[in-house]
Amino acid sequence: MEALVTLVGAAVVIIILRDVFHTLWHPTRHGGLSRIVMTALWRLSAHGIPGRRAKGLAGPLGMVCVVALWACGVALGWAVVYWPHMPEAFVFSGELEPTEHSRPVDALYISLVIVATLGLGDIAPAEGWLRIVAPLESLVGFALLTATVSWVLGVFPALARRRALALHICHLRRAGPTAGHLDSDAGAVLLDGLAAEFARVTVDFVQYPESYYFHDGHGDTSLALTVGYAAELAERARRAPHPGARLSATALDAALDDLAAVLDERFLRTGENRQTVLAAYARDHGGR
């Protein structure tokens, strides 16, 4: 029975570490704890809680919830590993009575002390294998803290790139480039730059899918509400006599196709063409 409970605790730890791995270093479309939490909060903010502010909180609150679940899962998993072996596999300070401090809550206390690397020493592992396992938990706790910081430092620059692209498109819309502007070397360079920016944003959605669940508002920084104008520019430039402009328009079209494919595969799942996918993206982020 002790071995079975220990294996259950180890399985919980492995599941949490697998989720951290697939969230930060090997993102996949198959879900996981982070994906479930972020999607649930996004849908709740969109359909269950009225108001723009609620939708704006979905992404940040989702990240906080995911990190909290990771930390709690690791601590609970290791506590389940320790509990069946208490008190005989641990040494207690003189002020503590071992039989009175061998409850599940004491196992959780030991786990929290170790994962937080506090090193209080009032209860410490005595058996050889536990003296190896406990430092491993400390390493996992340190890695989890580092992973959380890395996650934040990765997601927010991705958001900045997405919002900067949206603002760039808005500036172009205000400038109102004509067919003559697009039918030139400058027009080709302009479209090339947009294609490169869309490629970066597409990679961001693949590498940091959680960034999708951050609402960009209803202004000029919302890519969901401005991407349609970029498609319009590509359509106009494809008919331009300038060969460079036509080539750049084709590249921008391909970049928009890639963006729509990633959005549909990972988030929207409409199974439709690019125009329908981008319209669904706009609706999902508050557009009409």
From TrEMBL:
UniProt name for this protein: Ion transport 2 domain protein
Keyword annotations: Membrane, Transmembrane, Transmembrane helix
Transmembrane segments: 6-25, 61-83, 138-160
Record flagged with keyword Transmembrane: yes
Keyword Membrane in record: yes
Domain Potassium channel: 96-150
Gene3D superfamilies, A to Z: 1.10.287.70
Pfam families cross-referenced by the UniProt entry: Ion_trans_2
